[in-house]
Amino acid sequence: MEAVERSMIVTDLTRMQRPAVCVAGFFGDDGASVRPVMPHESGKRITERFIWKGHQLVVIPFTEVRVDFRGQVSDPPHTEDWEIEPQCRPELVRLLPVEERRDLLEDHLDGSVAEIFGAPIQEDQYICKGEGQRSLGTILAKQISQVRYGFRGYEDADEKWDYRIRFTDGAGQQFDLAVTDLTFRTACDYLSTGKEWAPGRVSEWLTRFLGQHGVYLRIGLARGWEKHPDRCYLQITGVYSFPDYLGGKTLPDLL
Hints:
This protein is of the alpha+beta class and 255 residues long. It has five helices and 16 strands. The protein has two domains: 4-97, CATH 2.40.50.140; 100-254, CATH 2.40.50.
């Protein structure tokens, strides 16, 4: 299949098992949701190499990039997947100014978490594989109750630190979800190591700050895994506050 170059605005850059990452956003021409994926036959996943060009980190939230797309593939609820050229290197177009970012999120706003997927949420945690119309959405949190950042003691080194947010959505439903947003996770680590804040202080500061300001959350679905192959768990794939909890910093400033 011949690839076609299209622009996309990145809203989600999430941490998976190193070195893999997941990227998602919206096409610049028609505003449809898109998640670039490697061709199935390649057996590969998108890695950190994809988001860099030389020494520049070009694929971060609110950048517009040009990508070579082959075509759409669908595996409900993951209907936003588009295969890309395996050797594709995104080209940076621009970084959206702050005033455009909130407008973008508002344009794609869902009223509640339940409205996003088009399938029942089981135990407030997951969607069954094969059900639902989409796997990505945006909500404006009605309340941020707690941010939790701390050591959980898992065996896997990549899972030792836990990043979670408890929030209430527009329908009054409360959720307690893991945060895979790479920028958010890096910011927590930056405050802990760079600022030498104790994890409890990081949690308290973020809880207080996000609890006082408008917070848009990108909600996505993970794919099934060995323990639960038929479950697609909810996760927070983007955390955006106005004013910005990052103080204007972007991911490269935190590395």
